[in-house]
Each structure stands twice: as C-alpha cells, then as structure tokens.
C-alpha cells in the first residue's frame, strides 16, 4: 500500500483559474490545465483563442488578471532553469548580425550565468545541438541568410542547448518545409524518450494525432484537455471552432479536421 503522506511529484505545468485580459478584454478565462510529465501536448484553437498568451503567461511574459501557473510546483521565476522556449519565428528579428552557432550558444547562458562568457565546452555543446537538427554545416552562416525552415531549426537547437526539462514551443511547424517538419517531429520524439515534456501551440489539426500524445482545445476558455484519443473528438472540435471546420473521414468520434486558422 502506498504511503498517503508521500505526495506525487508536481506536474511540469499546472494552471489554475487563469484569466488574462488585454485592455479589459479577456483573452483567457478561468483556465484549468495540467500537463503530464514526459508527454508531447498540442495547444489548438482558432485565431484569438489565447494559445500563445497561455505560453507567455506561463513564462511570466504576460501578467495574469487572476489565477496562477506553476512550473514543477513553483512559480516560473524560481524554475526558469528548467524551461526552454521557442517563440514564433515571425516574432524574431532575423536581421540581428549573428551566426547560427552564436544563436545556439546563447542557450547555454542559463547554465553559465550572464557574467561568464561561453568557452570551448559551451560551443561544443552548441555544435552538437546543431548537428541534431541537421544544421552543423550552417554554423557560421548569418541567421538572416537562412531559409525559414533553417531558422526554425536553429532556434530548436538553441532550446536543446538549454538542456531543459520542459519545452514551450509556439507554432514550431509554421511555415517550414517537409524536411524540417520531419526533423522537428523526430526531435520532439527524442525529447519525449528522454522523459522531457513539450507543450506546443499547433495549427495543423490533421497531424495532431500523429505528432502528439495530449491535446488541449482552447477558445478563450478551455474546451477539453487530455490524451488525444479522448479529447480530440468531433464534438470538442465543434465546440472549439464552431462551424468553421470541415472533417475528414475517420472513426465515429475521431476525425481529425482539416487545417484551421490558428
């Protein structure tokens, strides 16, 4: 019999009663969500649903009007060393004069502290991360000269360099080519095999059940969350997207939808 005095380890992400508003307009309303450890979770929903805001609030980038988010049982400010973040590619200034290796090496600053300069070991780690995403040959290339898919792989390599336990990714598949998409999927599966947790905003509903273990359907309020087989249903998708979505042939409950606006 288990000892009732021993509590279970806190989940990677726990969201309770979370409300976020921009200029008095709720973007997230009373959201409760628990992300289990060692899983790949997709956050899906229509434009304006609050998907990116949910990630940014968890990261302390956007203030909550009510409720809270905890990372492994504590506020993000106390756990930032356990978390890596891949922002939307469109939010990054790609004209910044730096090369791919330097961008990835920046991922080591959390382990070093900002007052120490990265040395040979940090650059070796960064190069290995570039190899993992197929970008080692582009280490010296200016990031402005890379294609969109290559830029995304560099940012994924930077996240790998952080050696985090929890990865937040905001639309990692958006605008990438098929080769990069396959590379990202393999990367995510590798993280899961290491016991890491990934929470990703995702827009292609056709691939949810192929790429992810868990899903959260969000439209300001949380519609449903849980294993893809349980939560990713016709009814929940209709509640999330309304009549703006068409369905492919599938099982009686399942029927991954066509790509919807994110």
How is this structure best described in words?
The model is unreliable at 247-262 (pLDDT under 50). The chain has a six-stranded mixed sheet, with helices on both faces. The chain has a three-stranded antiparallel sheet with strand order 2-1-4, covered by helices on one side. It has helices at 51-58, 76-79, 100-105, 109-112, 120-132, 148-161, 178-193, 208-211, 228-231, 234-241; strands at residues 13-22, 25-35, 40-44, 66-71, 83-86, 166-170, 197-201, 214-219, 221-227. It is 31% helix and 23% strand. It has a domain at 13-96 and 165-241: P-loop containing nucleotide triphosphate hydrolases (Rossmann fold, 3-Layer(aba) Sandwich). It is globular, with a radius of gyration of 19 Å. A hairpin with a 1-residue loop joins strand 8 (214-219) and strand 9 (221-227). The longest helix has 16 residues, at 178-193. It is α/β, with parallel strands linked by helices. Helix 5 (120-132) packs across helix 6 and helix 6 packs parallel to helix 7. Residues 13-245 form the ABC transporter domain.
Topology, element by element:
Elements: E1 13-22, E2 25-35, E3 40-44, H1 51-58, E4 66-71, H2 76-79, E5 83-86, H3 100-105, H4 109-112, H5 120-132, H6 148-161, E6 166-170, H7 178-193, E7 197-201, H8 208-211, E8 214-219, E9 221-227, H9 228-231, H10 234-241
Parallel strand pairs: 3-7, 3-8, 5-6, 6-7
Antiparallel strand pairs: 1-2, 1-4, 8-9
Helix pairs in contact: 5-6, 6-7
């Amino acid at each position: 019999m288990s000892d009732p005095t021993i509590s279970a380890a806190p989940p990677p992400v726990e969201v309770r009663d979370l409300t976020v508003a921009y200029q008095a307009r709720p973007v997230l309303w009373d959201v409760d969500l628990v992300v289990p450890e060692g899983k790949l979770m997709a956050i899906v929903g229509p434009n304006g649903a609050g998907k990116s805001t949910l990630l940014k609030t968890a990261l302390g980038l956007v203030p909550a009007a009510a409720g809270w988010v905890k990372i492994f049982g504590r506020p993000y400010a106390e756990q930032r060393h356990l978390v890596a973040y891949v922002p939307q590619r469109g939010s990054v200034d790609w004209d910044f004069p730096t090369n791919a290796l330097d961008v990835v090496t920046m991922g080591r600053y959390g382990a070093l502290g900002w007052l120490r300069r990265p040395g040979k070991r940090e650059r070796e780690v960064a190069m290995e991360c570039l190899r993992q995403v197929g970008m080692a040959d582009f280490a010296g290339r200016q990031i402005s000269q890379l294609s969109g898919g290559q830029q995304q792989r560099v940012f994924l390599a930077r996240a790998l360099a952080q050696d985090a336990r929890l990865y937040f990714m905001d639309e990692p598949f958006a605008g990438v080519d098929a080769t990069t998409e396959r590379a990202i999927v393999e990367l995510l599966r590798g993280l899961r095999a290491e016991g890491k947790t990934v929470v990703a905003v995702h827009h292609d509903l056709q691939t949810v059940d192929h790429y992810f273990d868990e899903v959260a359907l969000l439209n300001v309020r949380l519609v449903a969350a849980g294993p893809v087989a349980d939560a990713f249903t016709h009814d929940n998708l209709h509640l999330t997207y309304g009549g703006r979505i068409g369905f492919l042939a599938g099982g009686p409950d399942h029927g991954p939808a066509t790509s919807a606006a994110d």
